[in-house]
Amino acid sequence: MTSTYHGNIMAGLPLFENTALGQMRDGMTKDEMVAQYDSFAELYDEETAKRDYQGPRICAEALAKWLGDRKSSCILDVAAGTGLCAEELRKLGFTSIDGLDPSQRSLDYAMSKNRYNKYICDFVGANRTSNIDNDSYDAVSCCGGFILGAMEPDCLPDLIRFVRPGGYVCITTRNNYLTTVKAYSGGKLEAAMLELQNKGFWEQVSRDVVPGYHPGIDAVIFVYRVLR
């Protein structure tokens, strides 16, 4: 794999200095990015807890507002990592949750905690994700996927494709990443979202900025209803 993800001009994820995630940088290849997450998988839960990471809870609660039947709704958690978002979704009564992530060691850790029903090791990007059929889920959750060194706007059509018409896509990330990450800055991420809306693929039902993603760092939460 030779394509690259882009981040901001500063190397590393803020708050994760002296960890593998602190080594994330602009222009990393997919393999390099996955290697960082693989090396950090067994420490991820502990280190994020130390930093009072509330993104998974914020994402789960935002999605839950739109999904009526929590027992029967099928959710795909994209950028699943070790499954922290799944843990929060299960606390809210959701039981059918699959995880997709390119880091096999992160998924292995999630499996050791029994956090997902199905574990899918794959990338989401410009090319169609081959392991998932159209209209497979009632919703997609994606917390911490749109960050330095990770997902780009070209993955949005696949996120839509995974979801049945009338279902939802919930994307949660740090609000400041909309201006500091190269792939999203200058309005590029939201412009890509709007273009897909103008083409009739989905419609935005909420866009909220809330405090507490990390202490002193706001989250931005996008929720879209799939139309196509």
From TrEMBL:
Entry-linked InterPro entries: Methyltransf_25, SAM-dependent_MTases_sf
Recorded superkingdom: Eukaryota
Domain Methyltransferase: 75-167
UniProt protein name: Methyltransferase-like protein 27
Gene: LOC118430585
